[in-house]
Amino acid sequence: LIQNEKSQRIINYFATSLAGSNSVEEILWDIAESCISEIGLEDAVVYMLDSEKKMLVQRAAYGENKAKERMIVNPISIPIGQGIVGSVAAEMKPIVVDDLASDSRYIVDDQIRRSELAVPIIYENRVIGVIDSEHTKASFFTDYHVKIFEAIASLAANKIMRIISQERTEKSELKYRSIFESIQDVYAEVDFETGKILEISPSIEPFSGFTRQEVIGQNLKSFYAPPGPPQTLSEALASKGKVNDFEVTLLDKGGFQRTVSWTASLVRDEDNKPTKIVGTMRDITERKQVEKALKESVHIKTNFVSNVSHELRTPMASILGFAGTILRDKDMPDDTKMDFVRIINEEAQRLTRLIENVLNISRMEAGTINYKLRSTQLEGIISEVIDSQIVLAQKKGVTLVSHVGKDLPAVMAAPDAISQMAVNLISNAIKFTESSGTAEVSLNAEKENLVFEVRDNGLGIPEADLSKIFDKFYRVEREKREDEGTGIGLSIVKEIVDKHNAKLEVESEVGKGTLFRILIPIMG
Fold first, then answer.
1. Could you read off the pLDDT of 188-218 as tens digits, one per residue?
2. Residue 21 DSSP class
C-alpha cells in the first residue's frame, strides 16, 4: 500500500513536471534528474533513437560521474540490438538484470555496477528512446521500479511526440511563411463563387503598389483593365480545372496597365464542387514589351531591306537607261547628251549617298566609325551642301533659301560627317515639302554655339512619331503616300550630333512643317 501511494505520488510529480516542459531536451533532463531525486536511484540515463543511423544516442544523464550542468560532453551511442539498452529497443520490452557480471550484453561506461533496469519509450508501437538506470547493488531493481519507469516512459512518449509534432509544424509554417513572404511571383487564393481575394503574398505591393491588406477581400474583377478580358480566370478554370500562362491585363495602383501571366488550379470540396482558385501570377509586362519591340524590329528591318532594294534600283535604272541611250544614239545632239550626262551624274551621286548611309549604319552598329574632330569653319561646308541640293529642290519645285553667316567661330568637327548630316537634313526637307513649298537653311552663332537650322513648310511629323524618328530603320507611315527613303538618314544625323557633343532639337506640326535645330559648341 505504501509503495502504491509512493508510486502514485511519483507519477503525479512526473506528470506535473513534464507538463511544464517546453522542449524535448527539458523532458529528458527532467526524467534523469527526477529519477535520482524522487526515486532515490544512483544513476539515470535517457537515450533517444536516431532512426537514420539506427542508433540510440545519450541525451540526458545524471549520476555520480555524469553531467551536472545539463550537458553531455561525449554522448554514448549504442546500436540497436547491442548491449542491454540496444536489446530493449530491439525487443520493445523492459529488461531487468540482477547481476551484470553474468550478462555478456553489459557495456561498461564510467564504472562497473551490479544491476540494471532499462525500459523502452514507445509511441504508436515504435521505440523512440530508452530510460536506463544502473546500481552498485545486485538485484536492486524490483517490479515497483519497472512500473514507475513504464509510467514515466508512457507520459514522456506522448509529451515528446507532441512537442516534436509542434516543432515540425512550426518549422513547416516558418518555411511556408518564408517562401510566402519572399516569393517574387504573387501567390493568391480567390473564392471561386464570389471572386473575392482570400489570401495574397506581400509581393503584391512591389508588383502593383497595393498592400496585401488593401487587396484581401476585394474582387479580382475590380483589378482588370477595362473593358476586361474576353475570358476571366474563373471562366478559364471552370472547364479545364487548371491553366498555365493565362494572360490578363490588370491595373496597378497608379492606373497603369500590367500584363500578368496566371498559373492556377481549381480546388474542389468533397462533393467535387469548386471552392477556390489557388495559383501564382507573374508580371510579364516587360516581356510583352520586348516581344512587341522585337516584332516591330523584324518588321522595320524587313521594310528596310525592301526600301534599300527599291532605292538602289531606281537610280541604277536611270543610270543604265540614259547611258544606254547615249551609247545607242550616235547622232544625239550635244545639248541632249549633256542633259543625260547630268542626270546620270545626279543619280550616281544619289546612289553614292545611299550606299554611304548603309555603310555608316553598318559601321555604327559595329562601333567602328572613328570621327576625327579638328578645328573647322562650317560656313563653307554648309554652303557647298546647299549648292549641291539646289538641283533637287528645283526638280521638286521647292524654293531653297539660305542664311549662312560670315566669319563664324570655329568648332571641333569632322568635316565629312557634318557634310553628311547637312545633306540628310536638307534633302529630307525638300523631299517632304510639296511643290511650291519652301525649305530654309541657316547657320549662325548664338552665345556659346553655332546653330544650324533646317526648316520647311511641308508635311510635318505626327507627335506620336517624334520620339521614334531617330531610331534606325524607322519611317513615318503616311496614308496615301509612299515616300522614298530607308529610314536611316535621321539615325545617322543623331549619331553625328552625339559624337560632336552637340544638341539636337526638333519641332514639327502636321501640315505646317518641321524644324531641325543643331547646337554645336564653339571652341573656347
1. 899 998 989 999 988 888 888 999 899 999 9
2. -
Strand partners, 279: 188, 264
Cα(218)–Cα(205) distance, integer angstroms = 15
CB 517 within 8 A of CB 389: no
Counting every residue, how long is the chain?
Answer: 524
Full DSSP string of 131-156: EEEEESSTT---HHHHHHHHHHHHHH
**Alpha-carbon gap, residue 265 to 224, rounded angstroms:** 19
Query: What is the spatial distance between Cα 496 and Cα 413, in angstroms, rounded to a whole number?
Result: 10
Q: What is the pLDDT of residues 211-242, one digit of tens each?
A: 989 999 999 988 988 888 777 788 888 878 88
Per DSSP, what are the bridge partners of residue 508? 514
Q: Which ranges constitute the DSSP H helices of 203-284?
A: 204-208, 212-215, 233-240
Using CA atoms, how far residue 446 sits from 165, 418, 520, in Å, is 82, 19, 10
User: pLDDT tens digit string along 42-53?
Assistant: 889 999 999 888
The string of DSSP codes covering 394-415 is HHHT-EEEEEE-SSPPPEEE-H
Pure H helices in 62-203: 83-91, 143-182
| Parallel/antiparallel/unpaired status of strands 77-79 and 55-63 | antiparallel
Per the prediction, the chain carries an average pLDDT of 85
Three-state DSSP class for 250? strand
C-alpha cell read off for 82: 547491442
127, 49 Cβ separation under 8 angstroms = yes
Task: Please tell me what DSSP assigns to residue 102.
Answer: G
472-488, pLDDT tens digit by residue? 777 787 664 545 556 77
